[in-house]
Amino acid sequence: MEELKKKKGFIIDMDGVIYHGNKLLPGVTDFVDWLYKENKDFLFLTNASNLSQKELAMKLARMGMEVDPGHFYTSALATAKFLDSQAPNCSAYVIGDAGLTNALYDVGITINPIDPDYVVIGEGTAYNYESILLATRLVEKGAKLIGTNSDLTGPAPDGFIPACRTLMAPIEMTTGKTAYYIGKPNPLMMRTGLKLLGVHSDEAAIIGDRMDTDIVAGIESGLDTVLVLSGVSTMETIKQFPYRPRLILNGVGDIAK
User: Fold this and answer.
1) What pTM was estimated for this model as a whole?
2) Domain architecture of the chain: domains with CATH
3) Which among 62, 101, 167, 229 would be 20 to 30 A from 177, CA to CA?
4) ∠ CA 164-250-151 to the nearest 5 degrees?
5) DSSP of 46-71, one letter per residue?
6) Over the stretch 103-145, which tens digit does the pLDDT of each residue have?
7) Which of 15, 97, 212, 254 is catalytic?
8) Is residue 13 annotated as part of the catalytic site, yes or no?
9) Do residues 231 and 252 lie in contact, with contact meaning Cβ atoms separated by under 8 Å?
10) Are 104 and 84 in contact (CB under 8 A)?
């Protein structure tokens, strides 16, 4: 724990680490207060694509915690950055919420349900049978398939819900095409996170609740790895993976003690 506390920067997952639904998890306020008190650089790096940075800041504010929008980075922003670097001013058919579509608009990508360059899938209420059929047809016509993240499930107040990779499955299976996933553990998102954080990987730690995204991303990017048991992974499911986090904590509140 002392080694962790000496780190200059922290990359922190959100859902299952900071909150469940619309409720802060125990010890989160003390942990964020500790980050500010110790002048740590920190970035909330989330695979969720449905909300913007400002909306995430507002969500925490409604729970009683003030954090500047600049401390957030989402898979929607990472996806927009990737597409803009690969094909500036391209077009996309998008299944996802406003956080994703607005991120694409902001870099000059237009929404195109007729002959897009890309089909981009994120989580959201726009997902339905008709949208799956259209996405499938567009991919069959040559549109390239992009997923905002590779999460199979996400935590919810009453259990788990399907996440991006699960929602992508019907399109991949029908077309025979494999999507390219942008969010954690893709090194693209991790490198951007470290750049925004402004510290070297040796001086940073990642804190997450998922072995298959947060912890493997940290290991492959050279960060100190901290798994919290407040979200998806449990002591039993940890045994399924060939790698281990350096620290396992009940929650982020343990760091501030």
Assistant:
1) 0.94
2) 2-47+184-256 (3.40.50.1000), 76-181 (3.40.50.1000)
3) 101
4) 10
5) ES--SS-HHHHHHHHHHTT----GGG
6) 999 999 999 999 999 999 999 888 999 999 999 999 999 999 9
7) 15
8) yes
9) no
10) no
